[in-house]
Design goal:
This protein has a single domain, classed as Alpha-Beta Complex (50s Ribosomal Protein L17, Chain: A). Helices cover 49% and strands 18% of the residues. It contains 4 helices and 5 strands; from the N terminus they run H-E-H-H-E-E-H-E-E. Strands 1-5-4 form a 3-stranded antiparallel β-sheet, covered by helices on one side. Strands 2-3 form a two-stranded antiparallel ribbon. Helix 1 packs across helix 2 and helix 1 crosses helix 4. The protein is globular and about 45 Å long. The two termini are 23 Å apart.
């Protein structure tokens, strides 16, 4: 995956983006900085594309990125991705997420954004 550096080492950046994409799948909407949201959009859209096809190979590829976390009783994030989010976008050709810019963060004035599934 090619993505921006986000001022982190590659291992920390990969862990951050894995956590963010898992949280986005679980909550379907998160608030983060604009830079992180723009990088997250690329990965989240790829995960939905894999979930639309739904093959075993696609599940394995998605499982390399999405963390093994509970959504609710008896359901993990990867299951939610393939059972709920993927079928929702079956007819859509792309652009499964949107970024909405919000007010700067208090403290360091970092530009903030909401990223959510459509």
């Amino acid at each position: 995956m090619g993505y921006g550096r986000l001022r982190r080492r590659s291992d920390a950046r990969k862990a951050l983006l894995r956590d963010l994409v898992t949280d986005l799948i679980i909550n379907e909407r998160i608030i983060t900085t604009e830079a992180k949201a723009k990088e997250l959009k690329k990965i989240a859209d790829k995960m939905v594309t894999l979930a639309k096809a739904g093959t075993l190979a696609d599940r394995r590829l998605a499982a390399e990125v999405v963390r093994f976390e509970f959504v609710k009783e008896g359901q993990y994030a990867i299951q939610k991705l393939f059972d709920e989010i993927g079928p929702r976008f079956k007819e859509r050709a792309g652009g499964y997420t949107r970024i909405i810019k919000t007010v700067p963060r208090k403290g360091d004035a970092a530009p903030m954004a909401i990223i959510e599934f459509l």
